[in-house]
Amino acid sequence: MHYTKNIAKHLHEVYNGGNWTWVNLQDTLKDVTWQQATAKVYNFNTIAVLTYHIGYYADTILNVLRGNPLESKDELSFNHPPINNAEDWDAMRNKVKDDWNNLVAAIEQLPDEKLGEFFVQEKYGIYYRNLHGLIEHTHYHMGQIVILKKILQAEEGR
Hints:
The chain is mostly helical. The protein is globular. It contains 6 helices and no strands. It has a single domain (3-156), classed as Four Helix Bundle (Hemerythrin (Met), subunit A), CATH 1.20.120.
């Protein structure tokens, strides 16, 4: 039935476009400046923090699919490297894009049977849950990024 290929397609669309929401991470971030990415709005996470956080979990799953141990920690998922200029921001966006596309390619290679297996340990649930969780998690934080971006653009337009 090619379930993993369909999950990979869905993940591809979350980043690159073509999903049901018509919102994707690449288009959402493409015109965000490094100043906007690091600007604090109220007490919310910044766009840079949310972008790193999204990428952190994609990288975590990718590393496991590559046969590495699960070494991520939730408390580290918001700690991005410093962004002091456009190059730093571009580097972060490029890493997220590369990791995301590598994750999509790795999922395309998974046999469907893997979806019912535990992701590293039983306490993390099965692969299916983790892959779909990543999609849901990304849409959630992408929505926050869209709202922050609109607030910042509105403040700049005053």
